[in-house]
Design a protein that fits this description.
single chain, 206 residues, alpha/beta, Ribosomal Protein L4, Chain: A, 2 domains, 6-stranded mixed beta sheet, 6 strands
């Protein structure tokens, strides 16, 4: 089992913690990590390119003129593609870029991402994160004490003071244990996690 130091908010080491190898010591599968990141980015794409076909353009229900005898070419609708204001031939439709990963693949990818952060010594455990109120300056001091710049901060409870204090720091994102994902873990340089959150992650994913 991997051993990591536990720090307080002042950046002092106050103990150590044994991590569960079933979550933080697995064999890293780079392909699954890559697929999990691609899936999240693809699922976030809106695919909003859209144009109307002749059946979707408003109006054009009445035949412009009778079929024969006018000298004009026959026409069925003023919303046909050859008319100004008509529909588009083979109009583009919103595209769905999303694809599915199996549950086991998602879990394996998340464990691989967490293990990689532990192996790179970019997994910092804090005994507790509590603030008196919403104080961005104080939260920045905590990060400075931990020698952290770009960080994903994982909390066990929805602590509004901590989450609101971190919101105005551009290089920091907070997440709860049930919202962590591979993309965020790999995007941020360091993962800062509370001791309680580690226990919850091990309980859920072990």
């Amino acid at each position: 089992m991997a051993n990591v130091a536990i720090y307080n908010m002042e950046g002092n080491e106050v103990g150590s913690l044994e991590l569960n190898d079933a979550v933080f010591g697995v064999e890293i599968n780079e392909h699954l990590v890559h697929m999990a990141v691609v899936q999240q980015l693809a699922n976030n794409r809106q695919g909003t390119q859209k144009a109307k076909t002749r059946s979707e353009v408003r109006g054009g229900g009445k035949k412009p003129w009778r079929q024969k005898g006018t000298g004009h070419a026959r026409q069925g609708s003023i919303r046909a593609p050859q008319w100004k204001g008509g529909g588009v031939v083979f109009a583009p439709k919103p595209r769905d870029y999303s694809f599915k990963l199996n549950k086991k693949e998602k879990r394996a990818a998340l464990k691989s991402a967490l293990t990689s952060r532990v192996n790179e010594s970019k997994f910092i455990v804090v005994d507790d994160l509590k603030l008196d109120g919403i104080k961005t300056k104080r939260f920045q001091e905590v990060l400075n004490n931990l020698k952290v710049n770009k960080a994903l901060v994982i909390l066990n409870d929805n602590d509004e003071s901590v989450m609101m204090s971190a919101r105005n720091i551009p290089a920091v994102k907070t997440a709860l244990t049930n919202t962590i994902n591979v993309y965020d873990i790999m995007k941020y340089d360091t993962v800062v996690v509370t001791k309680d959150a580690v226990a919850t992650i091990e309980e859920v994913y072990a």
